[in-house]
Amino acid sequence: MTDTLTLLKTRRSIPSSNIVEPGPTDAQIEDLLTIASRVPDHGKLAPWRFILFRGEARAAAGEATAALFARKRPDADPKAIDFERTRFTRSPLVVAVVSRAAPHVKIPEWEQLMSAGAAAMNLVVAANAMGFVAQWLTEWVTYDEEARALLGLKPEERLVGLVYIGTPNTAPFERPRPALADIVTDWTPPAA
Ligand SMILES: Cc1cc2nc3c(=O)[nH]c(=O)nc-3n(C[C@H](O)[C@H](O)[C@H](O)COP(=O)(O)O)c2cc1C
């Protein structure tokens, strides 16, 4: 348990371009996704799913997003297009966490979406617990309908984020965290 607390107290994201080989094996990926799926889920709807970008598919996915980027931004700097090409090869494994939130008789879509966020965070924590590092990114592909389709999402699905996983080639450094005094209050009854 102490190990879990230490992990949660010290975990940091590492920029995706500093996440290198080796990545998780197929067996480790299965473990990671099993853990990612083990989140609170009101109504047991599993309102999320995962799309894996690994191996050679990563370069092809990068070429496809770069082509879309170039079409949408004809004035884009060629360096920016080149950067797009590396979108999925930056790290050994990229997991798209997809929200399948949909209207339901009892469970609000808001709750389904939050469950998907929990799945993404479980994935990040599990990757770290396994000895890897991770970064959860959204960037423009999350908010562009054509990019989402290209990544394999259905029109009614939303991208919770791309979780980059692998081994760090740099040490993490701490960043400021919010002071609890600024974000925690005790409830008091409303003034009558
Ligand atoms: C939903 C979501 C989307 C994010 N998208 C981006 C992004 O597009 N670009 C970015 O630099 N950081 C993004 N971040 C922030 C990083 O994942 C991460 O919080 C940051 O690198 C520092 O994280 P740490 O406190 O875990 O070390 C996003 C975080 C969340 C929760």
Automatic annotation (TrEMBL):
Residues 21-166 form the Nitroreductase domain. The keyword tRNA-binding does not apply. This is Putative NAD(P)H nitroreductase. Transmembrane segments: none annotated. Keywords: Flavoprotein, FMN, NAD, NADP, Oxidoreductase. Binds 1 FMN per subunit. InterPro entries: NAD(P)H_nitroreductase, Nitroreductase, Nitroreductase-like, YdjA-like. Its EC number is 1.-.-.-. Its cofactor is FMN. The keyword Cytoplasm does not apply. FMN binds at residues 11-13, 38, 42, 136-138. GO terms for molecular function: oxidoreductase activity. Pfam families: Nitroreductase (PF00881). It comes from Kaistia hirudinis. Belongs to the nitroreductase family.
